[in-house]
Amino acid sequence: MNDLLFYALLMALLYYFFLYLPSQKKLSSQPNNQPSTSPLPIFDTKQTQTDTITRIEEPGAIQCPGNQFVEDPQVIQQLIEEKTKLEKDNQQKEQTIIGLNNSYDKLATKTQQELDNLKKQLKEKEEKIKELTEVEKNLEEMINNIKELNQDLD
């Protein structure tokens, strides 16, 4: 944290001594009729307090004396409307997500019930197959016994 503060102060000092101060010296040495070639925005120092300066980087802002900015009420209203619209959109998306999650849970429950039902039917069919194979064995035994009896009777 201390390093960050140190580097920030160092950058501020470097900017002041190598960029800002030389450009100010150039301005004071230039005659008033020559245009400035400085990259820094220069404001006329003879302005009164009632003059307003609007900056291009901040649309809808009005600069008041003392570097205070007052936002345009229309811009504020538009931002409030946009915020409200985004909040409604976000709320609708949340409701959609909740609905989709509920649908997914219902579908998962239904699928699990169908799977359980199919397993139960499969188990019942396997039991029937076992039962039928036992009945088949018993019938074969009975048929063999009847054949033996028929042979004994002949």
The dominant shape is: rod-shaped
Q: Find the structural class using helix and strand composition.
A: mainly alpha
Fraction of residues in β-strands:
5-15%
Q: How are strands sequenced across the largest beta sheet? A: 1-2
Mean pLDDT: 80
Radius of gyration: 46 Å
**What is the H/E order?**
HEEH
Number of helices: 2
Major β-sheet, in short?
Answer: 2 strands, antiparallel
Which regions are unreliable across 5 or more consecutive residues at pLDDT < 50? none
Number of strands: 2
Helix content: over 70%
- Whole-Å distance between the termini? 114 Å
Which helices and strands appear, and what pairs or packs with what?
Blueprint: H1 2-29, E1 61-64, E2 68-71, H2 73-153
Antiparallel strand pairs: 1-2
Describe what you observe in this structure.
With 154 residues, this protein is mainly alpha-helical. Among the domains are: 1-30; 81-149. The chain is built from two helices and two strands, in the order αββα. The chain has helices spanning 2-29, 73-153, and strands spanning 61-64, 68-71. Strands 1-2 form a two-stranded antiparallel sheet. The longest helix has 81 residues, at 73-153. It starts with a helix and ends with a helix. The mean pLDDT is 80.
Report a brief summary of the structure.
With 154 residues, the protein is mainly alpha-helical.
Name a few traits of the molecule.
154 residues, mainly alpha, rod-shaped, single chain
